Amino acid sequence: MNWTPYRVRHWFLRNFCHVRIGRDSSIAMGCFVTGDFISIGNNTVINRFTYLDGRVSLTIGNNVNISHYTLIQTLTHDPQNPDFVCLTKPVVIEDHVWIGARSTICPGVRICEGAVVGAGSVVTRDVAPYTIVAGVPARFIKPRSRELRYRSRYFPFFDTDIQ
Questions:
Q1: Which of 23, 35, 61, 63 could link 55 by a cystine bridge, Cβ 3.0 to 4.6 Å?
Q2: For residue 158, is it within any domain?
Q3: 10 is catalytic
Q4: Tell me: the pLDDT tens digits for 146-155?
């Protein structure tokens, strides 16, 4: 869906993919959405080329910013199992989280309120509230201010940053 207006794209995602999308939230062009278990809060921005894996519960809160090329997975495999069984692990991203470009969120992770994930990070464990993490694997860098008042809203035209 790289060319459709937001209203059409969101209508399709709500009605055919069963994605719950909150008020003033945007899912940009070029995102890959799979599964029936995705819930997105209000004022949340899912930027271009993000992969949302909703085959198991993927919950994204309010005022969340997910940057370009982010990968969010809810399924994995057990590499030690002789049958390579599939493991289902829900992902929760709480309010006021910012995920930097090209980050990977692994199955079973909870990113708590106000946290920041630095660009290119691989998040393999839960992220504490109001902390900044970065790296591969993501590790604590420093605390984040708790004085967050912003509301996310981003609806650029076509495939540009022009609003």
A1: 35
A2: no
A3: no
A4: 998 888 776 6
